[in-house]
Every structure is written in C-alpha cells, then in structure tokens.
Write a structure and sequence with these properties.
By secondary structure, this protein is of the alpha/beta class. It has 9 helices and 8 strands. Strands 1, 2, 3, 4, 5, 6, 7 and 8 form an 8-stranded mixed beta sheet that branches. Helix 4 links the parallel strand 4 and strand 5. The longest helix has 16 residues. The chain is globular, with a radius of gyration of 18 Å. The relative contact order is 0.15. The structure holds S-adenosylmethionine. The site of S-adenosylmethionine has 19 residues, from helix 2 and strand 2.
C-alpha cells in the first residue's frame, strides 16, 4: 500500500480513490500513449495493486513486477487471477538490485512506487542502474517516495527520530534528493523532473491514525493476531513521520520522472 494523491475537488475522506489516483499519476508520467503494446515494469511491486490498476487502463499492456517477498508473489498472483488479468500481469520474486534480474528484457517504462527507499545508499545507485539497463532508449522512469531534501535536521533529537523511523520501515536510509538526481544524470537520464507531492499526500497521511486504530481493534484486541515487533513499528512510524517531515524537518515526498536517452 502506498500514499494517495489528492486532487482539488476530490473527497479527502475517500482513501481508495486517492490511492488509485496515485497509480494514475505514475502512469501519466510513464508517457505510454501511442505505444500499441507498452511493456512496463514495477520494481518493488508489493501485492501488485499498481500493476492491476495499469491493466484496467491499458488493455494491451504487458506488465511485470518484482518483489523480494515470496508471499507477496503468491498473493499477487491470486489477486491478478481474481481480477482477470493473470495472463498479462507477471509478478516475479527477485532482488531489484541484482544485475542478473530479467536479463535480456527491455521496457518502455519502469517505476518504483514507495519501494526505492529500500535500495542501498543515499543515491540509490544500484536501483537506478538497473532501471537504466532495463529501459529502452527513450523509455521513462518514475520514482515516487520519501526523500531527504537539502535542509538539515534541526538537532540531534530529530536525527535520532529519523533513524528510528528508518528502523520501523526496515530501510537503511532515504535517498538524498540532490545525490539521487545527480546519479540519474550521470547514468544518462534526461528531462529529469522533481515534483514535491508533500501536500498531495497529506490527506491520505491523515488517514493513518484511523486505519491503525481500526487494525488494532479489529485484528489485535478483538481478533487473533499477535502484537509483533513489526506491527508495533507500523504503529510507531506514522507518529514519527510528521516530526521529521517538512515543514518541521528535511523529509519530503516526491515524484521524480526521467527519460533514458
Ligand atoms: C512499501 S512496499 C510498496 C509496494 C508497492 N509498490 C505499493 O505501492 O503498494 C515496498 C516493496 O518493495 C519491495 N522491495 C524492497 N526491496 C526490494 C528489493 N531489493 N528487490 C525487490 N523488491 C524489493 C518489497 O518487497 C515491497 O514489495
């Protein structure tokens, strides 16, 4: 699950439509209009919801996704079958930083929606190299995620909160915006566009306390799920998030798109 994209006039209480709008915004930036059978790849596809959304919008597209979590592969395949797009959407288990991944394949568009944060380093070099290798010349890359802007942490406490947030999300570090775009350029990407979506995602971020409380009540207090450390982390993370995000801190949510020349 990713954050939703709020458009003026939309209902900010309707979470699903904001999630779907985020998929639509990623697709719009992949520039596939006019391609008869676009080939698209989702690096870090989770349960494949974005791929199924693309499948509904692009009846001739060939869609692939990679996740390193085996149960996500199984579940996404079942969801794809149930949605009637099992033949066109292919989800594979793999590491998106592994240079042998999908050797010989080439795509019109590659995207990473809230999955690039799991890649190594402050510039996410290995992930971007992979995206570059897997795109055809003229192909588009879209990355949407939290980044660290050039602003500094206001003090050591805020930096410690950021480190705890990374622990909760099981990531090493967020990408640094400047280093990330510099790496894109070095790799030969052009038309690099950085859009700050902080205000666009704010309404869906506001849903987190309610969704978390609902999960706690239905699944843990009155349900059968145990309160594991990972679940605690999922509850703590949204509390920490605003303390390190703009306007209080350097973290910001961006959509970055680029073309491979
Ligand atoms: C927060 S989820 C986002 C899922 C999906 N993009 C969405 O928007 O719902 C992060 C995803 O990245 C995947 N991931 C993280 N590191 C990965 C890696 N090295 N190779 C492949 N997938 C990875 C995880 O398995 C997970 O599916």
């Amino acid at each position: 699950m990713h954050f939703g994209y709020y458009r003026a006039g939309a209902n900010p209480l309707h979470r699903e439509s904001m999630l779907e709008q985020m998929n639509a915004e990623v697709l719009a930036r992949l520039h596939v209009d006019g391609i008869a059978e676009p080939r698209l790849l989702d690096l870090g596809c989770g349960l494949g919801a974005t791929l199924r959304s693309f499948a509904r919008r692009l009846p001739n597209a060939r869609l692939s996704g990679v996740t390193r979590v085996p149960w996500q592969v199984e579940q996404s395949r079942a969801l794809n079958e149930a949605a009637g797009c099992g033949e066109r959407v292919c989800v594979l288990e793999g590491d998106y930083e592994d240079p042998s991944l999908l050797l010989g394949s080439v795509y019109d568009g590659v995207h990473a929606l809230e999955s690039s944060c799991h890649a190594q380093g402050a510039d996410k070099a290995l992930l971007l190299e992979q995206a570059h290798r897997l795109l055809r010349p003229g192909g588009r890359l879209v990355v949407c995620d939290g980044f660290l802007s050039s602003r500094r942490f206001v003090n050591r406490l805020q930096h410690r909160i950021y480190r705890r947030l990374c622990e909760c999300w099981v990531i090493e570090e967020l990408a640094q915006l400047g280093l990330f775009t510099q790496r894109l350029q070095q790799l030969g990407f052009r038309e690099i566009t950085v859009e700050n979506l902080q205000m666009r995602v704010a309404p869906s971020v506001a849903h987190i306390p309610w969704v978390t409380l609902k999960f706690l009540l239905t699944d843990v207090v009155f349900g059968e799920r145990a309160m594991t450390r990972a679940r605690w982390n999922n509850i703590i993370a949204p509390v920490l998030l605003p303390l390190v995000s703009a306007p209080l801190g350097p973290m910001t949510y961006c959509m970055i798109s680029a073309t491979k020349i």
